[in-house]
Amino acid sequence: MSLSLLFVALFSLLFSASNSLSLSFPLTSRSLSEEPSISPLHLSLYSKAASKPPAKLPFKYSNALVVSLPMGTPPQLMDMVLDTGSQLSWIQCHGKVNGKSVQPRIKWFNPSLSSTFSFLPCNSSLCKPRIPDFTLPTSCDPRRHCHYSYFYADGTLAEGNLVTEKFSFTASPVAIGCVKPSAENRGILGMNTGHLSFISQAKISKFSYCVPGRSRSDLTGLFYLGDNPNSGKFKYVNMLTFPESQNSPNLDKLAYTLPMKGIRIGRVHLKISPAVFKPDPTGSGQTMIDSGSELTYLVDEAYNKVRAEIVRLVGPMMKKGYEYASVSDMCFDAAMAAAAGRRIGDMWFQFENGVEILVGKGEGLLTEVEKGVKCVGIGRSGRLGTESNMIGNVHQQNMWVEYDLANKRVGFGGAVCSGLKA
């Protein structure tokens, strides 16, 4: 059976009976730093549009959540980084740069093989400059195709043409970026609440994923579009939403914002004012959950309280004078990590309605940042030039995270994510 017919058969089965969407795909926690030809991406709230490219940050994420989705007719499987903190999806397209063929070491899409691929013309409504959709105004290329440029916080530039293409499970084509091929960057599956995000264009109101723990040998989890059969056991918190008219300079209105209340380490409830997790009139204090960021970031007041408790528990074990990438100084030599993790115990993030999620236990609280060094996976957001909190994928391991847009809520459910099957 051809790949195209296989996908048609599969999706017809998944849409039968209840006529509700429930598609599952393998999700891989992939260490980009082990692929030297690829510059690691870090896509998060800092990928918000700005009037000029943001300054390059000192930190590089080393892990990303990668899904392979069938796109085009007939379908081509494309690896894309799952990013709930980003809007526009894009892929690398096969082609030439300056007349020379480029052979990236990752998958690229070949438009000439797809009957549903189409360039967006310059007179398309999507090609009109619309901040915050693009970091630079769109323009026309010599072929009268819509050209765009999208800057991310680490200096990564994704530029190319806006195109439409059909995924095997979407009723109609969606607008994505078709970027110039290179050996550097993966594609992005933009999943925030913006009107150009994949989830918005595909009119899919629910998605979820299960991130495998990095201590496991099998780093493959699961990604659902639509209903998750495990959702009956999830605990839900309501998302905070903001009117389009709200003009707060530090607020990302397209992010998934959660009503976080506090942090618990073992039996100790840290004395952190709930106000530091809630956006003030300027937007500072916003707490987001982001699959595209590796570390969790906290504003200084919260970070300092976490650090003080870590010092109290394992201060003599900490790596003296060490600070990882200018954002985190709760670090240990690998030889001390297991003992330090046992003394720290477990860490919980607390939300409204009494919901708590276990974000790490024992040595699982620590993430390897370089050979021989492990750190508590929390950094200071102020060092990145923001006063917001962000829950990164390091603290989403071994749990289901469901984004229910129709009911404006996020669900959590404990799981062993490694090697999950649909």
From TrEMBL:
<dbReference type="Pfam" id="PF14543">
    <property type="entry name" value="TAXi_N"/>
</dbReference>
<dbReference type="InterPro" id="IPR001461">
    <property type="entry name" value="Aspartic_peptidase_A1"/>
</dbReference>
<dbReference type="InterPro" id="IPR032799">
    <property type="entry name" value="TAXi_C"/>
</dbReference>
<feature type="signal peptide">
    <location>
        <begin position="1"/>
        <end position="20"/>
    </location>
</feature>
<dbReference type="Pfam" id="PF14541">
    <property type="entry name" value="TAXi_C"/>
</dbReference>
<feature type="domain" description="Peptidase A1">
    <location>
        <begin position="65"/>
        <end position="413"/>
    </location>
</feature>
<dbReference type="GO" id="GO:0005576">
    <property type="term" value="C:extracellular region"/>
</dbReference>
<keyword id="KW-0732">Signal</keyword>
<dbReference type="GO" id="GO:0006508">
    <property type="term" value="P:proteolysis"/>
</dbReference>
<comment type="similarity">
    <text>Belongs to the peptidase A1 family.</text>
</comment>
<keyword id="KW-0325">Glycoprotein</keyword>
<feature type="active site">
    <location>
        <position position="83"/>
    </location>
</feature>
<dbReference type="InterPro" id="IPR051708">
    <property type="entry name" value="Plant_Aspart_Prot_A1"/>
</dbReference>
<feature type="active site">
    <location>
        <position position="290"/>
    </location>
</feature>
<dbReference type="InterPro" id="IPR021109">
    <property type="entry name" value="Peptidase_aspartic_dom_sf"/>
</dbReference>
<dbReference type="InterPro" id="IPR032861">
    <property type="entry name" value="TAXi_N"/>
</dbReference>
<dbReference type="InterPro" id="IPR033121">
    <property type="entry name" value="PEPTIDASE_A1"/>
</dbReference>
<dbReference type="GO" id="GO:0004190">
    <property type="term" value="F:aspartic-type endopeptidase activity"/>
</dbReference>
<keyword id="KW-0645">Protease</keyword>
<keyword id="KW-0378">Hydrolase</keyword>
<keyword id="KW-0064">Aspartyl protease</keyword>
<dbReference type="InterPro" id="IPR034161">
    <property type="entry name" value="Pepsin-like_plant"/>
</dbReference>
<protein>
    <submittedName>
        <fullName>Aspartic proteinase PCS1-like</fullName>
    </submittedName>
</protein>
